[in-house]
Amino acid sequence: MKEVTTMTLMQWFQKQESISTQELEKLIKEGNVKLIDVRTKQEFQNTHIKGAQNIPLSSISQYKGNKKQIHYVICQSGIRSKKACQMLTKAGYSTINVKGGMSSWDGSKV
Predict the structure, then answer these.
(1) Which residues of 26-41 are buried (b: 16+ CB within 10 A; e: fewer)?
(2) Is residue 96 within a helix (H) or strand (E), and if so which, with residue range?
(3) Residuewise pLDDT in 10s, the chain (110 residues)
(4) Radius of gyration, alpha carbons of the chain
(5) Please, are residues 65 and 27 in contact by the beta-carbon 8 Å criterion?
(6) What homologous superfamily is domain 2-104 in, according to CATH?
């Protein structure tokens, strides 16, 4: 959690590649998408996108995944997912933030 709270202003405003929820929905329909949902376990249990992996922001620094794969990251509004993207990018992962998060998602949910 320390990594999240010590993020500098410069890191926060750093450009982060992002897509809309509509673009994400198209990609999911087309095939293999690695989607990480960084909301809390409770938020994820209430509703989530089918196939998403729940890794709360507080645990994201421990994530061990395929660094050759693009990781799409979502939360409720896009704020936590942006932080997670910055942390994952710093760790060597390719990330794309989902703008608007679950609040903007119109696709099917579990």
Answers:
(1) ebbeeeebbbbbbbbe
(2) strand 94-98
(3) 444 444 555 454 557 799 999 999 999 999 889 999 999 999 999 999 999 999 999 999 999 999 999 999 999 999 999 999 999 999 999 999 999 999 999 888 87
(4) 13
(5) no
(6) Rhodanese-like domain (3.40.250.10)
pTM above 0.70, yes or no: yes
Beta-bridged to residue 36, according to DSSP, are 53, 73
What's the burial of 71, exposed, middle or buried (CB within 10 Å: 0-12/13-18/19+)? buried
Long-range contacts formed by 56-65: CB under 8 A, 24+ apart: 57/4, 57/83, 57/84, 58/1, 58/4, 60/36, 60/84, 60/87, 60/88, 61/3, 61/87, 61/91, 63/36, 63/88, 63/91, 63/93, 65/34, 65/93
